[in-house]
Amino acid sequence: MKEEKNMSLVPAKFRFTTKEKWLMIVIIVLMIVGIIVTWINCIENMKVNAEYKLAYQQYQEALIKEQEELERKRQEKLPKLTESGIENINHIYSSDTKRAFLTFDDGPSSNTNQILDILSERGIKATFFVLGSNVEKNPELVKRMYDEGHFIANHGYSHVYETIYQSPQAVLDEYNKCNQVVRDAIGEQEYNSHLFRFPGGLVGGKYADIKNQANDLLLQNDIVHVDWNALNGDSETISPTIEYEIQRIQETVGNKQSVVILMHDAQAKKVTVEALPTIIDYLKEQGYEFKNFYEIIK
Asked: Is 281 one of the annotated active-site residues of the chain?
């Protein structure tokens, strides 16, 4: 009676049947469950987002490290002339240990590919004093030199004495012209070898005064020169034989501790390709370690 009396005090619109009460309970439970599930999902999403952010951060860090490593390797292949490098050049023919610098002038040509194959097989890095005019004809060979770790040095553009030795400025102009075509060939506009070899060598000859003045001008522009103190004789005679080149190597290397060996990879120097394996074997037998100018200009 009392319950009925209390129910009578509740307006009709707020009275619920037992079925309606259970329905409300179910709805409330479902809402609570929904809230819990949503909360759990939010927590999971936060975890996933945190893991994603961490993974993305790690990816970004790895990408930065990879880019830094690529830049470090790129910088290693860009010669930088320092005071120690100049000092090294000044003492290039002196060493406490036996070392040999294989250098090739006047290329690249079709012979250069075979020379690069031989050097690759032997694990030797050399130095190529390239001619700009030949670089323009064979840019892919210069790119190969660069990619395989050889030092690309500068031998001017034309190799025409009347042109290159018109004046000291003409020598510098030829250097710069050659340097630019090398940059274009290797796809690296910051490249500068800082290393020049005068066609015909620095010392003596008809253009000795111009050469000496040009050498001073080059040095003012952070460019050093190097000649040679040993050779294979492939430019001494029109048709050298393998035996002749080996003999000249033996005669000119002698008992020197540090040798900069002049050879050529121009189109006409096929015999140099044929003699090169024997030349390398001879130098190894004499206890020489092979170097290139990356270890001098750095």
From this structure: no
